[in-house]
Every structure is written in C-alpha cells, then in structure tokens.
Specification:
globular; mainly alpha; two-stranded antiparallel sheet
Length: about 500
C-alpha cells in the first residue's frame, strides 16, 4: 500500500530539514576556528579606537593609533605564549583545571600589571641601543614600531609551532635589529647583548638544577621514607615556608616598583619574615590535613595541591608586574615621542597603555593559551603536584639569584628549564635505581641502548624544538625588525 500524498510530503520535508541541519552543523564546525581570531581582531580594533580617543585622528597621531593596535597584538601573543609557563605545571599536575588556570592567570596577570607594574620603563629595552645614535624622533618612532611588530610576529609564530619563547628577548631582538638598521652596528650596546646571550644558557640551566635539587630533597626525605605522612608533616611546612619567603622577596624586589623601591637585602629580610610566618601557620594545618591519610604517594600529592595553586597565582602576578612593562615599552616610547616630539631613554607608561597590555594578555591567554599550557604541563614530561611545585619554586629562586648576580634572565626560560630539569633528574634517578637493583641481582650494570631509549621521560622532539626556538629568537626578531624598519622608512618618506 503506497503512502498518501500528505505522508510523502512530510517525508520530503523531513529529509530537507535534515539536510539543512547538517549544513548548519558543518557551518558551525568550519567557523569555530575563526571565533578566537575574530575576537582578537576586535580587541585590536578597540585598542586603536581608544588611542584615537586619547590622541585624535591627526596625521601624526595616527602613528600612535597604529602602535596601539600592534601593542594589543603583542599583548595577545604574550598571553598565548608567556603565561603558559606559569600555569602549565599546575594544569599538567591536575592541581588546576584548564578553565581554573585561565581564570586565575588572567586575574593575577592583570592585577600585577595594573597594581604593581613599573611606572617607568626603559624604552630601549635595558640599554640595547643608544638613543643618541638615532638622529630624529621620527626615525626612533619607526624603529620602535618595527621592534613591536617583529616581536609580536615572532611570538605568534612560536606559539603556532608550540614553542614557549621569551617575549622580553623577542622585544630585545626587535629593538636591536631596528637600531642596527637605523644607526648601524655601533648603536648597539654589545656587552649588554652578550649578557643577554649568556642568559639563554644560564636561565634554563639554573632553573633546571634548582628544580632537580628540590625534587631530590622531596624524594629522599618524603617519598622514599618508610613513614611518608610523618615525613610530610615535618618537611611540607618547611617547603611552604621556603616558597612563601622566596615569593615575598621576589614580589618585594620586582613587583612593588610603583609603590616603593626595595633593595635586595631588604627584600631578603622581608622574605625571611614571611617564610617564618608561613611555616608557623602551615605546620598545624598540614598536621590536621594529614591525620586520616594513608601512607602512600597519592596522599602526598594532595598535600602539595594548594601550595602549587598559590605558587602559580603568585608567579602570574609577578610576571604581570615585571614583564608586561617590557613588552609595552616600545608602545610607550612611541606615545612619548609623538607627544613631546623627542625621545628619551626612560618614560612613564600611560595607564591606558598598561590597560591594553593587561587586558590583551587576558584575552590572549583565554583564546590561544591552552595549546602552550598543555605542552608545558604534560607534553614535555609527566608532572605531578610535587614535581610541578619544584618547578614553580625554582622559577622564583632563580630570579632572586639572577637579580643578585645582575644577570638579565627570562622567566620563560627558567620555568621551562625547571620542567626539563625535573624530567632529566627523574630519568637519571630511575636509571640509577635500576642499575643498583641489577647489581644486587647479579645482572649486567647497564641497560641495553634500546631499553634506555624506551625509558626516556623527556620528549626529545619538544626539547630540540624549544631549544632551537630559544637560540633563534633574538636573531629572528632582529632580522624581521630590520626589514620592517627599512620598509616603513621607505614607504613613509
């Protein structure tokens, strides 16, 4: 029996509606990757409009509008790349969800930039070039514009490749390249560049060694003790006190420039006081938290969860206070040169410039940050709360040591170096234990080459990609900056 005309019409209608729903689904699937770039583009446009409100749309002021757009682009890339180093270990250790990490990082980075960010920034990135070697303010403006654009492009490319790089080093390379193009090699302060090149090696190695040392302490004094809970009650408050003291000294030294200038000795005294206070507060809390815990490693991970989250938040605050100003330095230089008609080695950063930096970081982290957070937190080596805690602690200690030694270091290199240090230490420690067990059992002391390769705990492909990106950051940013400067100079003449 054939269907009635009405039933056939309904079947045809159902088929058509099904096709339409499939088209809608396909359209949604195709357009989803365009949402994040669209929001980022809207933020850049808003930054340009804000600059136009402050400066008007006169021909000379359009330079500031363009610089604001590229400054927003740079801030977005900082959020996508640099902030992942602070939150990656906590996410990889499952102490924070991805959403929780993004919210905490966005709040702490913005608070650090707006509340404790330096109100004065060296517009030539810590003396990379001599402004006296550049004859005209317009030439200086184009040099800073080229530095800003090239640094942002390089960080964007590194993010696409999955390589965490130093945004400060990118800005340094951009300023150097534009300075050479504008005034020749003599304009560059080569001793300062040499110190920065040395930091490529010193930062990650120092961060890795300190992280490995703390992991060795935790393994020997807590994890491999017969009574793990009793050992944790004794050592976890000490480690939390060390963390609190180091971060207090770090923030006093680096994060309170706008309020008061504190020297290293005073910062260390402040850190010691906060460390002792934190130890006194934490000791009874850890004892109470561990009362009903079983004597196994899973219990230890729970004890390190909250300190790890706090350390990640403090790292983000300190990063916002210390590094954002360096990133928006070229924009501040362009604003000053346009307003005054001259350039200076140091200028005040207008609040609207800091707002662009702070909000740009938050948007960049939210839209593009998860890729690098996953890479740093879980794809280099496997992290748990104890290992991630060692990474966060080593980052703060390394910055304090570097400040004492007067070395220009990168927070990115330190944090990622700490992750590598933890992974390589675990490889060495595991091989040592296997070798000792083999000796006791009367077997060969050394594992076969294939077995050693199978037991590697650090992904060598990521290691090589990241190291290569670090090495080429300054030269690549410099070459792009020089080319952009020459192009701007030729077009705007």
């Amino acid at each position: 029996m054939t269907g009635t005309p009405d039933s056939n019409q309904w079947k045809t209608l159902d088929k058509d509606l099904s096709r339409i729903s499939q088209i809608e689904y396909a359209t949604s699937y195709v357009s989803r990757p365009l949402v994040a770039p669209g929001i980022a583009l809207a933020f850049m446009v808003i930054a340009g409009l804000a600059a136009a409100l402050f400066f008007g749309t006169y021909p000379d002021n359009m330079i500031v509008v363009a610089a604001a757009v590229f400054g927003a682009y740079m801030a977005l890339n900082i959020g996508a790349n640099d902030v992942a180093n602070n939150m990656g270990p906590a996410v990889g250790a499952n102490a924070l969800t991805m959403g929780g990490a993004i919210v905490i990082a966005a709040i702490c980075e913005s608070a650090g930039a707006l509340l404790a960010g330096g109100d004065v920034v060296s517009t030539i990135s810590k003396g990379i070039i001599d402004p006296d070697g550049i004859a005209q303010a317009r030439t200086f403006t184009w040099a800073m514009m080229a530095a800003l654009v090239s640094a942002a492009l390089w960080v964007n490319l590194a993010t696409r490749l999955g390589a965490p790089v130093s945004t400060t080093h990118s800005v340094v390379g951009g300023v150097m390249g534009a300075g050479i193009a504008a005034a020749g090699f003599a304009a560059v302060n080569w001793p300062t560049m040499g110190a920065i090149a040395a930091s490529w090696v010193i930062s990650p190695v120092l961060g890795g060694v300190i992280a490995a040392a703390f992991l060795a302490l935790i393994k020997n004094r807590i994890i491999y003790q017969e009574d793990k809970i009793s050992a944790a009650r004794r050592w976890v408050p000490i480690l939390v006190g060390v963390m609190a003291g180091v971060f207090a000294a770090y923030l006093a030294l680096k994060g309170l420039k706008r309020i008061v200038k504190i020297d290293l000795a005073t910062a260390l005294v402040i850190g010691a006081a906060f460390g002792a206070l934190s130890y006194a507060i934490t000791r009874p809390l850890i004892r109470r938290q561990s009362e009903c815990m079983e004597n196994r490693n899973k219990s230890l991970k729970a004890l390190f969860g909250l300190p790890l989250v706090l350390s990640a938040a403090l790292l983000s605050f300190a990063h916002g206070a210390n590094d954002v100003a360096n990133a928006v330095g070229p924009l501040a230089a362009i604003v000053h040169a346009t307003e005054v008609g001259a350039f200076a080695g140091e200028v005040a950063i207008p609040m609207w410039v800091m707002v662009i930096g702070a909000f740009g970081i938050s948007f960049g982290l939210f839209l593009f940050g998860p890729k690098l957070i996953r890479m740093v937190g879980s794809q280099i080596t496997k992290l748990n709360p104890m290992r991630a805690y060692c990474v966060a602690l080593s980052a703060a200690i390394t910055v304090i040591v570097a400040s004492w030694l007067g070395l220009p270091v990168s927070s990115t290199h330190i944090a990622v170096g700490g992750v590598f240090g933890v992974g390589f230490f675990r490889e060495w420690y595991m091989e040592k234990r296997l070798r000792n067990n083999a000796v006791k059992a009367g077997k060969p002391k050394r594992l076969p080459k294939e077995e050693r390769r199978r037991r590697k705990l650090v992904r060598r492909s990521h290691f090589m990609t990241i190291v290569a990106a670090w090495v080429v950051t300054v030269p690549a940013a410099a070459l792009m900056s020089a080319g952009i400067f020459l192009l701007l100079n030729a077009v705007m003449l």
